[in-house]
Amino acid sequence: MAGSQPPSEDPHLGEVIVSADAISQRISELGAQISEDLAGRAPLLVGVLKGAFVFMADLARAIDLPVEFDFMAVSSYGNATKSSGVVRIVKDLDLDLTGRDVLIVEDIIDSGLTLAYLRKNLMARNPASVEVCALLVREGLQKTDLDLRYVGFSIPPDFVVGYGLDVAEKYRNLPYICRYVEDPT
Ligand code: IMP
Ligand code: MG
Q1: How much distance in Å is there from the Cα of 123 to the middle of ligand 1?
Q2: Domains and CATH numbers, the chain
Q3: Nearest CA to ligand 1 atom 8
Q4: pLDDT tens sequence across 113-145
């Protein structure tokens, strides 16, 4: 996993934090677990745009249930690099959540503030259940405090890109997750 160089000449791309193989292996496990936990039900996957779209596409195909899809886009007010917890819904869901088993699919939980807002917002729409599947969580965050049912990987504090995650809309298409080097020397 860590240590190998990404196959790219871009000096902003640092070491690989999670390889494509590791992502794929973990998604198979998560999909199997979700399929078992929600057996007999038809969960609604709610992807948080844009970062979660790559993960959601692969996760959905690892779930052996009749899943449905919807998407939400949110933006934080204020400083772009530090989440304030004040969130604005830029694109709301198309579907009604009443009685649905909702699975929020997120790319990365950093402070957890965006997720806390989303969960509260979706819970108010009378779903049967709301669970969370996050590909990445910052090391040190208390999974239990955030009530994260499914987590792919815990990662160090470094800013990362790839597999949906961006810097100014770039790098989302990298098939692995690597460290972003702000000032290459
Ligand atoms: P939170 O509200 O602090 O948990 O913010 C989470 C959101 O911040 C994620 O959904 C990402 O959009 C963004 N984010 C946090 N850390 C990173 C990172 O390392 N790379 C890319 N985006 C990140
Ligand atoms: Mg996001």
Answers
A1: 22
A2: 21-76+85-180 (3.40.50.2020)
A3: 110
A4: 889 999 999 999 999 999 999 999 998 876 557
Predicted structure pTM score: 0.92
Question: CA nearest 139: which of 115, 110, 167, 162?
Answer: 110
Backbone angles phi, psi at 162, to 5 degrees: 105, 160
What span, in angstroms and rounded, lies between the C-alpha atoms of 73 and 59? 19
4 and 15 in contact (C-beta within 8 Å)?
yes
> How far, in Å, is the centroid of ligand 2 from the Cα of 76?
10
Q: Helix, strand or coil for residue 80?
A: coil
Over residues 9-37, the mean pLDDT reads: 97
Q: Where are the beta strands (DSSP E) in 7-58?
A: 13-18, 44-49
As a whole number of angstroms, the distance between CA 141 and CA 138 comes to 6
Nearest-ligand number for the alpha carbon of 177: 1
Given the residues 37, 58, 70, 110, select the one marked as catalytic.
Answer: 110
